[in-house]
Design brief:
This protein has a single domain, classed as Alkaline Phosphatase, subunit A (3-Layer(aba) Sandwich), CATH 3.40.720.10. It is built from 15 helices and 20 strands. With about 500 residues, the protein is α/β, with parallel strands linked by helices. The chain binds zinc ion. Zinc ion binds next to loops.
Length: about 500
């Protein structure tokens, strides 16, 4: 079996936004400059110090309201944020100094996995607590048709939905999402009292401004649920100062966004390899975007000045590839770098700081939050309610198996994994990759032509049983047109989200 069996999806090839001629021109320019003095060193700057001001130590001075025992909830998700970018995971650069400090008093799920490797199915799983094979929202790129843009899948109105459950339970609900997959009309807005418009692709400082505009409304709603979904580390990477000067001391020969686009296309075409210094610039840009997001998001939390009785969750919709398996971006495989995500829950005074090594999934977030907030669990949520385990009243299976799925374009992959074993099944060909995650956590050493061993067969039969137990639950609405302005349409096209 060839390792790159799950090749880059043409549908998600995001160099589509730039013409071949322009790329050729960039190539000539950049190669000329890259090896001339123009690609010159610039003086490194000292790394910025983490903001030492505490994010929330404010004691809530507002009078207690009736029913004030329920906690407020802030759910923060970040596009493409790899689990291994946390300093606590051993990454040498400090990319999230403020947020990691803030969440250091929380419960850190060190083996948390997304249910998919791209935004739409993953975020639907997060809010519906169902695996993609059950909620069925596995495809959904925008398609250009006569008369406008068509969404190929919208979220069924009868799919259990965390914001709706919280709204019914008396929470005021606020949503700020920067992903184009979640714009109004997709169904993501269901259950939100306030769902911010026109945030697709916006940077974290814009999100901060929009949230702070209605800060008093949010703070005055007790309890409230606030979902913040950030776009910053998503390609195209816009290198952020001052961090980029420390991570990539050489100044690029083109404006950073053009240089990033050119580098990306060269990598995708195999003309720049992983050990090339030019390749480092891509990772440095990605890393600097995380630093930027960390600063903006922690500023926002500080300025919100929320009550201590607030549950905070930090996670990501999926990771990002940097040629670990000859692939870039995301949505093109189910390897570790694409589905291992951060997951930390902080509830000051209620949850103590600890590390969880058992396997967790994004589908666990909704039932755990409901339970922590004292709301009766939505019975069709499939995730694990970790509150019972965190309180010590229940034990988690040491070898819990969780699932992920990628059905996109020609790809149809499923995976099943615990904290120590994983297999990926290519549903089209029947090919199986399996990994001993204890010995090989980066999934580098798949034994070629291996006959599935007992462990792999056990995981595959668990996957098959879950699919049988949870068949697609709803009838999906027909594709429909939604209004998208020209600028958003152009950006969607540049990212390869339009077929
Ligand atoms: Zn995403």
């Amino acid at each position: 079996m060839k390792i790159p069996v799950f090749g880059s999806s043409p549908i998600l090839s995001r160099s589509a936004g730039i013409s071949r001629a322009a790329l050729f021109l960039f190539s000539l320019l950049a190669f000329f400059f890259a090896f001339s003095t123009a690609f010159r060193s610039q003086p490194p700057t000292p790394p910025p110090e983490p903001d030492s001001r505490p994010i929330t130590t404010h004691e809530d001075a507002r009078p207690a309201l009736q029913n004030d025992r329920r906690p407020d909830i802030v759910l923060i998700t970040v596009e493409c944020l790899r689990s291994d970018r946390l300093r606590s995971s051993g990454y040498p650069r400090s990319l999230l100094p403020n947020m990691e400090h803030f969440f250091s008093s929380g419960v850190h799920f060190r083996q948390a996995f997304s249910t998919a490797s791209w935004t739409l199915p993953s975020l639907v799983s997060l809010l519906s607590s169902k695996y993609p094979f059950e909620h069925g929202i596995t495809r959904g790129q925008f398609r250009q048709e006569d008369g406008g843009m068509v969404l190929q899948a919208t979220i069924p109105a009868d799919l259990p939905w965390l914001p709706s459950v919280l709204q019914k339970a008396g929470f005021r609900t606020f949503g700020f999402s920067t992903s184009p997959h979640t714009i109004r009309g997709t169904g993501f807005e269901r259950g939100f009292d306030h769902y911010e418009q026109n945030l697709a692709f916006k940077e974290a400082d814009i999100v901060k401004q929009r949230v702070l505009k209605i800060r008093e409304e949010i703070r005055g709603s007790r309890p409230f649920f606030l979902w913040l979904h950030y776009f910053d580390p998503h390609w195209q990477y816009f290198p952020k100062s001052p961090w980029i000067r420390n991570y990539a001391p050489k100044k690029p020969p083109l404006p950073p966004h053009l240089f990033d686009m050119w580098l990306h296309s060269m990598v995708e075409e195999g003309r720049i390899k992983v050990h090339d210094p030019l390749f480092d610039y891509l990772q440095a840009s990605y890393d600097s975007e995380i630093n930027y997001w960390d600063l903006q998001c922690s500023d926002l939390i500080r300025e919100m000045d929320l009550a201590p009785n607030t549950i905070f969750i930090l996670s990501a919709d999926h990771g990002e590839g940097f040629l670990e398996h000859q692939l870039m971006d995301h949505g093109n495989s189910l390897y570790e770098e694409l589905i291992h995500v951060p997951l930390i829950i902080r509830w000051s005074g209620h949850l103590r700081s600890r590390q969880i090594e058992a396997t967790a999934s994004l589908i666990d977030v909704a039932p755990t939050l409901l339970s922590l907030a004292g709301i009766q669990e939505e019975s069709s949520f499939r995730g694990l309610d970790w509150s019972k385990i965190l309180s010590g009243s229940h034990a988690v299976k040491a070898r819990r198996i969780v699932f992920s799925q990628l059905s996109n374009g020609p790809l149809d992959l499923s995976s099943a994994q615990s904290s120590d074993w994983k297999c990926i099944l290519d549903e089209n060909t029947g090919e199986i990759l399996s990994y001993d995650r204890k010995l090989d956590p980066r999934e580098r050493h798949h034994p070629a032509k291996q006959t599935p061993n007992l462990e792999t067969r056990r995981f595959l039969s668990a996957l098959s049983a879950a699919k049988k137990a949870y068949p697609p639950a709803t009838t999906h609405p027909a594709p429909r047109s939604i209004p998208i302005n020209k600028k958003t349409e152009d950006e969607l096209r540049a990212l390869g989200y339009v077929q």
